[in-house]
Amino acid sequence: MVVFYTTGCPKCGVLKKKLDERGIQYQENTAVDEMLSLGITSVPVLNVDGRMMDFASAVKWINDQGD
Question: How far apart are CA 43 and CA 67, in angstroms?
Fold first, then answer.
């Protein structure tokens, strides 16, 4: 699982905090060139097993874990 983000991004911080609160382990990626090569034009994006989720979808996925 990878979180694509940039520093200073409020939503990115919220997403990482939610993952931490749930105890979900993830890798962080801030490589803009890699994001662009994957078609990512806004952050945060959560990649779970190849499924790329925007902020709203990622928060829903996190909230659904363990339910």
Answer: 26
Q: What is the pTM (predicted TM-score) of this model?
A: 0.91
List the beta bridge partners of residue 58.
none
pLDDT in tens, 5-52: 998 999 999 999 999 999 999 999 999 999 999 999 999 999 999 999
Backbone angles phi, psi at 42, to 5 degrees: -145, 150
Closest CA to 17 of 58, 67, 64, 66: 58
Tokens in use for 31? Answer: 């490589």
